[in-house]
Design a protein that fits this description.
The chain has about 100 residues and is mostly helical. The chain has five helices and two strands; from the N terminus they run ββααααα. The chain has a two-stranded antiparallel sheet.
Length: about 100
């Protein structure tokens, strides 16, 4: 939906605000992996809760979300997913070596 996408200088992005935030959150992945920043797996899981809660409450029509909140929860979720991916990658690497 165009109303759920971000508009920058008159140009509407092709992705929704939440998906755009998730993709920006994925930019943390190389820093976590290359600089070997270790965060616990549970933190990655917990960082996904705000996005799930925002989407669920919107879907159940308890409230109306907005693009700013979608974007922020998307970034937090993208960071959380990056932590999960790095945690599993490090686990696999340590198991193989």
């Amino acid at each position: 939906m165009k109303s759920r996408s971000l508009t920058i200088k008159g140009h509407t992005l092709p992705l929704c605000a939440r998906c755009t935030g998730i993709l920006l959150g994925y930019l943390f992945f190389p820093f976590l992996f290359v600089f070997e920043l270790y965060f616990p797996l549970w933190l990655g899981i917990v960082l996904n809760f705000p996005m799930v809660l925002d989407g669920w409450t919107q879907k159940r029509q308890f409230r109306e979300s907005n693009n700013r909140l979608r974007f922020i929860t998307g970034i937090v979720s993208g960071l959380g997913q990056s932590i999960i991916i790095v945690s599993f990658s490090q686990l696999i690497i340590s198991f193989l070596l």
